[in-house]
């Protein structure tokens, strides 16, 4: 129904902005990591959550761009709590370094928004010799989530607030190869940039579904624990490559 501007079950439609969706939210005391916070969905997510009092850690590849976005938001909202940290999702070493530094900071973690991504580049291998879109869009976020999930569980238990992990996927997941081509990820001769992008977005969805299953299983063994005291389930957020920044303005979600 959202295609026609009508409100769906959530009460929102394609014309709803991020500020509409978060109206009345008080995020004071919450901490969130947003990957790819320097453009598109990532920037708008950072801006609006900061507006509502959430402490945002901007996980970005380009530190200069990150600092510029931070400065812009602070000019509009001087009390916003923003930190910029370097993260190159195409490098597993960079992901591990980011996670180590975040954990060492002692900050809590209520929300992890796996948003950053690249779309349809020529065939390229990552620093770890993995096809770049799959490495950046899926594997980097997969490892980041794995490394930070215990921090999220601990935060949820200590604050008695349910955590959230959001995987930003795309309708392009429908245009993946026929299934997941794990045995041909690095096959340049069969590489199709659009299909490879769709495959990485399908992997985001499968990751979210598997997290949901694991969180439900883990809950069974937690005695005297209500749904509010642990990271109960993965919230899957599937979105198109466009985000409505404000009424009358659409911005493409570009490479982060």
From TrEMBL:
It comes from the Eukaryota. Pfam families: adh_short. PANTHER family: SHORT-CHAIN DEHYDROGENASE TIC 32, CHLOROPLASTIC-LIKE. This is NAD(P)-binding Rossmann-fold superfamily protein.
């Amino acid at each position: 129904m959202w295609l026609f501007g009508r409100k769906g079950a959530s009460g929102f439609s394609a014309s709803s902005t991020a500020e509409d969706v978060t109206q009345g939210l008080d995020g004071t005391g919450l901490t969130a990591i947003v990957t790819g916070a320097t453009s598109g969905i990532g920037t708008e997510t950072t801006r609006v959550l900061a507006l509502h009092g959430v402490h945002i850690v901007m996980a970005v590849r380009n530190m200069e761009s990150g600092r510029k976005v931070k400065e812009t938001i602070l000019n509009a909202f001087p009390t916003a709590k923003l930190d910029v940290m370097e993260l190159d999702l195409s490098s597993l070493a960079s992901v591990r370094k980011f996670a180590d530094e975040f954990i060492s900071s002692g900050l809590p973690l209520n929300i992890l928004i796996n948003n950053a991504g690249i779309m349809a580049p020529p065939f390229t291998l990552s620093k770890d010799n993995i096809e770049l879109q799959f490495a950046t869009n899926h594997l980097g976020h997969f490892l980041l989530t794995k490394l930070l999930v215990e921090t999220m569980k601990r935060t949820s238990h200590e604050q008695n607030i349910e955590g959230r992990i959001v995987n930003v996927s795309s309708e392009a997941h429908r245009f993946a190869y026929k299934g997941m081509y794990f045995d041909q990820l690095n096959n340049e001769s069969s590489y199709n940039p659009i299909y490879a992008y769709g495959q990485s977005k399908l992997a985001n969805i499968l990751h979210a579904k598997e997290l949901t299953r694991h969180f439900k299983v883990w809950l069974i063994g937690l005695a005297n624990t209500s749904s509010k005291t642990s990271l109960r389930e993965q919230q899957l957020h599937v979105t198109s490559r466009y985000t409505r920044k404000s009424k009358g303005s659409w911005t493409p979600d570009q490479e982060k």
